[in-house]
Amino acid sequence: MGRLSLEDKERQLDPDYVPPRWRSTDLDPVAKPQKKWEWYHVGGFWIAEGFSAAQIQTSSAAVAVGLNPGLALVAYSIGNLIIAIPCCAIGYIGSKYSVNFPVIARGLVYPPPPSDSSLIGVASSFGLWGSYLPIVIRMAVAPICADITASALLSLAIFWTVSLPFLYLSPPKLRWLFVAKVATMPLLWVALFTWALTAAGGFGPLLGSPSKPTNGMSTGYLFCYAITAAIGGASTFAVNIPDITRYAHDPRSSTLAQAVALPLCLTLTYLLGITLAATTQVVYGQVYWNPLEMVEVWDNRPAKFFTGLLFAFANIGTSTNHEIYEIVFAHDKQTWLVTQSRFLTI
Q: Which pTM does this prediction carry?
């Protein structure tokens, strides 16, 4: 993210030059030499965003409240196909015209919707800072019964320290993080999926379990719940994905990559979550909708270590993707400063 300068380059060369308007390089269309993203970078974004403990919990929660695993998978697949349509459409605009979300929003609606400000609150409540800050507060003021250990706080501090530098990466450099996650996360997916099928004795016991809705909910209600959960998991990118695709040099290939990678990668992640939740019900007699809680009950220490390590890396990639929310907010505020004020810099 560059610094917003209220002095044009032309003014530095010619003191008498009067600029027609103030501008920021962050809001300008991306120059062709900087459009280096290939189709696999855009497709890899959805692996980097999709594969995380939080996304796995999204699908395993449907099994936890009583939906049949097969119906849950169908519902999440439908939701992913629905949300892929606006993501591909708005992503194509960003790649075609090399502009970001605030610029597109002002071309369609003025004044712009305040959604970008609320995105930061949503990301903070579920992301890196919002999820773990209450733990620190409880450790300082809560009694011993809060069950907060020194090892948990040490792990938290280590994770913060390791993940913080990734948040300073500029959007063009994020593509290398996506490539790294594409190379590692399929290994974890295959390992967990293989263990789940082996431990449960195949797909038969998993898919054969009937729907048992809880809390008075019906099967149809849970099916629709799963569809909306899948849509909600990627709904923010249905508006701000141009902040990523603007760096893609070929609009057609990047759009096709999204059209395939979004429903495929997210559905595979949801399939893993559904399978793990159903397996824990068969093996342990209860549903562990949180995969980290499932790993806790394993007896194999090396498996627990490497699974936890890869989940930590997966969460770093997902938390770094949440930088997109802050980028949207910063771009929007820069737009306001450029158009409304000559006295502020950020």
A: 0.74
